[in-house]
Amino acid sequence: MKLITTKTLILASAVALTFTACKKDETSDADSDKVTAVDNQAADDLSTDVIDQFNMVTMNQMAIANSAPGKAVEATVNEDARTTSGSVTISPVDYATFPKTITINFGTGTVDKYGVVRKGKIVGVLSNHWWISGAELRIDMQDYYVNGIQVKGTKILTSNGFNAETNSFSYNVSVDRARINEEGNSFTWSATRTVSYFTKGTNTALDDYITVTGSTSGTNRKGKAFTTTIIQELKKPVISRWIVSGIIEHKVADRPTVTLDYGDGTIDNKAKVTVGDATVEITLHK
Fold first, then answer.
1. What is the C-alpha separation between 5 and 155, in angstroms, rounded?
2. What residue stretch is flagged as signal peptide (predicted)?
3. How many CB atoms lie within 10 A of CB 19?
4. Is 2 a member of any domain?
5. Which residues, 6+ apart, have CB-to-CB distance to 278 below 8 Å?
6. Measured between alpha carbons, how far is 160 from 130 in angstroms, rounded to an integer?
7. Do the domain assignments include residue 269?
8. Which one of 1, 8, 172, 214 has the lowest number of neighbouring Cβ atoms within 10 Å?
9. pLDDT, tens digit, for every residue of 120-153?
10. Angle, CA 48 vertex, CA 270 and CA 10 arms, to 5°
11. In b/e form, how buried is each residue of 199-221, taking b as 16+ CB within 10 angstroms?
12. Can you give the pTM of this predicted structure?
């Protein structure tokens, strides 16, 4: 696939890892142990969704014709192309001048092919070509909502460059006191993570995927401080709306550890939350 010309530099769909809010199925939000797990999943989804919007812009509108990473993944078939539903502005428009300001404007609301509604703006400043190690992308949200949920904060992505041996890009993500507001409730978090985008070296994006490792800390909707650690890397195929595998451990104050398990790799909107001996299934909504 075309890693820098047509699809998703994601680099996540990462954080982009990316995603959206998760609601529990048959369980009560009154259980703050599970609330943290649900909140963290929402943060992962929404953060990755923001990053993925920039990946699609970078791939489709900042193409590289003759670079090594571009040649490695150049043969992308048109039907695999992915585009943002927002209006894109890049300044300056020439290929060589940096830094560049990339604005994706969703106006009062646009709907993508998956039915996800976004409104507002996300603005990124890119210091250099993304496949160059050390390039930085700083992303800020301006009155930005996904399916009615407001997302605030700044994300700083630092490129680790292109790995020709694995046909992959990776980057480090730093999030400082980001916030999600939904129906009067707020959730804040900071994160340090590494996201990798694997192209598989084929002429289609259908087998591409993203992995995420790292940790998060913040305050959940109940006002409780928490920490989380990815103990088994998260994996999200480009063609999936959801993370399909990986395990996260959550710790809230002196409460028992909560485990969020995304499954065995099957593409579906289910995950399991475990506290002690009790396990419940949750539904991931995007």
1. 23
2. 1-23
3. 30
4. no
5. none
6. 9
7. yes
8. 172
9. 999 999 999 888 899 999 999 899 998 888 888 8
10. 115
11. bbbeebbeebbbbbbbebebbbb
12. 0.71
- Return the closest-CA partner of residue 283 out of 245, 253, 242: 242
Token pair for residue 52? 């993925």
Tell me how far apart the alpha carbons of residues 59 and 255 are, in angstroms, rounded to a whole number.
44
Tell me whether residue 17 is in a domain.
Answer: no
Place of tokens 């699809």: 7
The residue type at 74 = E
Q: Which residue has the tokens 């990946």?
A: 55
Type of residue found at 183: E
Give the number of domains in the chain: 1
Domain of 43 in residue numbering reads as 22-284
